[in-house]
Each structure stands twice: as C-alpha cells, then as structure tokens.
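Design request, tokens follow.
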C-alpha cells in the first residue's frame, strides 16, 4: 500500500495530538489522577481516529515525528 502524503492542515492536527499524548502532558506533570489521564488519552485517541478516517488511512505516531523532523531539516516546520 502506498502511503498518501498528509496535508499540512491534518499534519498540524496530528502533531498537536502527538504532543498532547506525551506523558508529561497526558499526566499533567503528575497532577492528574490515573483515571483523568486515561480519560484524556481516550479522548485524544478518538480524535486521532477521526483524523485517520478523514485521511483515509492509519497513521502511526512515528510517522508524524519523522515528517516533523524532515520538515525541520528542509526549513518547512
């Protein structure tokens, strides 16, 4: 299967979700209870699935990071 390029608008949304999934953000630097963290993670993952549906394919977090660093290298980030 050939991966379609992620349009910039969707890429920005995926990148925002990746950042929100970082442990320090997800757990609010230890301030959130485990149930709050799980709830937050589940909400983010639902948003992720909606974006994948819009794009028409699955997207891994690693792909978002790889694309981000590639854009930075090329001066497009």
């Amino acid at each position: 299967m050939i991966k379609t390029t992620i349009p910039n608008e969707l890429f920005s949304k995926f990148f925002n979700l990746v950042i929100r999934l970082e442990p320090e953000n997800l757990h609010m630097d230890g301030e959130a209870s485990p149930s709050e963290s799980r709830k937050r993670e589940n909400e983010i993952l639902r948003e992720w699935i909606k974006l994948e549906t819009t794009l028409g394919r699955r997207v891994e977090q690693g792909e978002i990071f790889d694309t981000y660093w590639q854009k930075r290298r090329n001066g497009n980030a």
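Comment from the thread starter after seeing the answer: thanks! The mean pLDDT is 93.
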